[in-house]
Inverse folding.
């Protein structure tokens, strides 16, 4: 799927950058990426409509991205 290709490229680029800057929590961040992909796959199989998927994505991830930003500061 296009979404998973985008996520893989994004996560790979981000992890490469984090290696370059010697980000101290890289291993934990990689696990977080794997968990996001796993969760996304589950959502795609469980949701019955695009609207349901949209709502689930918002509910599950809108706070998560704020947490990621706080960790990186």
């Amino acid at each position: 799927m296009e979404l998973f290709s985008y996520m893989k490229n994004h996560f790979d680029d981000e992890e490469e950058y984090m290696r370059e800057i010697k980000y101290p929590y890289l291993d934990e961040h990689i696990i977080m990426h794997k968990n996001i992909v796993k969760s996304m796959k589950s959502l795609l199989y469980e949701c019955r409509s695009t609207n349901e998927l949209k709502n689930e994505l918002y509910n599950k991830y809108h706070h998560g991205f704020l947490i990621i930003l706080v960790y990186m500061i």
In short: The chain has three helices and no strands.
